[in-house]
Every structure is written in C-alpha cells, then in structure tokens.
Amino acid sequence: MPETVLDQVLIDLKETATEHYPAAGELRNLRVVGHAPKPDHFIYDLCADFAGGVERVAVKVYRMGKNSTQAKAMAAQENSNLQFVHEMPARKKVDGIPRPLGDFTRLGAVVTAKIAGLPLQAMVMKAALLPGYAADNVAAAARRAGTWLRGFHKATAHPQQPLDSGALISQLEELCSRCRKQGLDEASAKMVLNAAQRVQSGIKKPLPHSAVLGEFTPLNVIISEDRVGFADLSRMQRQNVSLEDVALFVASVEALEKYPFCNREITREAQHSFLDAYGITPAESALLPVLKTKALLGMFAHGRPTGENGERKRVMWANIMRRFIRQAAERTLEPMAA
Fold first, then answer.
1. Nearest to residue 108, comparing CAs of 68, 147, 137?
2. CATH of region 118-330, choose from 3.40.50.720, 3.30.160.70, 3.90.1200.10, 3.30.1240.10
3. CATH class of the region 2-113
4. What is the pLDDT of residues 277-323, one digit of tens each?
5. Model pLDDT for residues 160-199, shown as the tens digit of each residue
6. Rounded to whole angstroms, how far apart are CA atoms 305 and 225?
7. What's the chain's average pLDDT?
8. CB distance 300 to 318 below 8 Å
9. Which of 78, 136, 151, 318 could link 234 by a cystine bridge, Cβ 3.0 to 4.6 Å?
10. What is the pTM of this model?
11. What is the per-residue burial (b if ≥16 Cβ within 10 Å, else e) of 289-327?
C-alpha cells in the first residue's frame, strides 16, 4: 500500500509541481532519494529537478493497515494544522513551518516542501561524541529553538487561563498507574504526585495558552544557518497551556542521557540555553518541572517495542526511565534554570 500511495503522489506532483514552484521553471525529473519507516507512517524524501534548480519534497504516508479511514483522518488533521499556521494573518507569520504542496488526504498522505537543516538531537549527539565539535554550537542552537518557540506561541496566543489543577493531577495519576505496569516503583510514583500537589496548589495566576505543537523535541527541531524549522504538526492542538511544549522539549533533552556518552553537562546547558531564550514567568518556572515529569512519565508509559531483542531493550529502557523520573521528582521543587 505505501508504494501504491507513493506512486499516486508522484503522478499528482508531476502535474502540479510548476504551480507550487512557479519561479523554478520546467520540471525535468522527480526522484525518490530516501525513505524512513516509522511506527505509524513512512517518510519519503523526494528531489524535484527543475530547469532553474532543485527543490526537496517530504512525503508522509500514514500506514493504512486494516483501517484506511483512520490513516486518512490523521492525514486530514495534520494537513488542517499546516493550513491553519499558513493562513494566519501576515502580522503573525511563523517562519520554519513546511509549506503544504496540495491536499493528499484521500491517500492518507501529507506532502510538503522539505525543510533543510540538521536535527538539534543530532547536534547534541555530535557534541557528545566528537571532542572537536564545540558544545557551544548546541547551546546556540537551543537558544534559537527557544526563541522560535516563543514566537510561535505569541503568534497563536489565546487569553490566559487558570491552571486546571484537577485535570493535571488526574493525568499524573493515570500516567503513574500505567508506568507501574512498566516497573515504576511506588515510592517514585508517590514522590511525583506529592510534589505535583505542593507545586500546583501554589500557582494562583493564570497561565499563557496558545497552539501547542505536541512534538517539539530535539529530533523534530531542524537547525540551519538562517532559520529554525519544525515539520511535524500531526499532534498540534489549537489551544492548550503553552508550557506543555517547553516541558516536552526539556524532558526530551534530559532523556538523551540514556546514551552513556551523553552527559548531564551537555543536556543541562542545552536546557538552560533554551529556557533562557524562551523566557518564562515565576509561575511557569514553578510548574515547569511538574510538566516535565509528566512528559517523562508519558515516555515511560509508551514503552518500547518487543520484537527481536525487544525484551532486553524494554528492560534497559525501564531501568533508565525509573532513574530519570526519580531524579525529576526530586528536582520538582527546584527552578529549571537554577
């Protein structure tokens, strides 16, 4: 099915490519130059050769399986989110979001112009593995990511609202329950919930709300010389607590410590540089560690695949995440930028 969908996408793009790139001239060739399988979709990298130059295209094909309706619904949601961002008023323009190249919802696919650059996670890995690659590069990239995210949240801002403490505690309780099945000890779960109760009870001021990307992680943040890019809008919510994106980012950076060569010094510098550029209020600073812990619990609850060598990897992942969550809970009352 993915090949069939891709063939249809290629046929359609050959007919419409000059409309999407009017200044590039005649389309001479359209090539598939790479692909990557993901749990619920495939990513194909295309190269469009025009008379006036080369353009890169990204094709995301959701796995159909036995439920093509669900794949089409997911594609429709992501395409709608892309349209939402690109149709915002000029004064709220957000750079770095890929431009959709038509509506391929009927095929369960999303087709966009490809954002060139290096994932921030790859930069962290290079800093950890290559002594000659300055950690300052990671800090600078993290600052740019923080500035970009703040701009996105301002562009999509909604009126501030009080924290829904009951909903937050319920979410944490549910996640702790799921994580216990993955091996989270009772002491860590209680520590998380008690710390969250203490923090949320002291937050009286309303919090910023905006569109929330839902996948703002170092793997999805693309850094180039002239801009920051973000390509995965599949889980974007039109309105939620803006701090959710911030918390997911710092949690994902911290989770990179699962690699033995990626030490706390590198991840801490990336976190602090990001937070400094984003800029958070005292109330947000108090709540952020709680939301970061929630993000780590979500990663733990999601687990790891259990295919070949899956059991060994699952046990290793559980051990690592238990340590992360205990450490996060112990730091919950400390400001993230301290």
1. 68
2. 3.90.1200.10
3. alpha beta
4. 999 888 888 889 899 999 989 988 876 655 555 566 667 777 777 77
5. 999 888 899 999 999 998 888 877 888 888 888 888 888 8
6. 36
7. 87
8. yes
9. 78
10. 0.89
11. bbbbbbbbbebbbebbeeeeeeeeebeebbeebbebbbb
Copy the structure tokens of residue 332.
């919950």
Residue tagged 């005649």 (tokens): 26
Residue in the structure block whose two tokens are 């390509």? 231
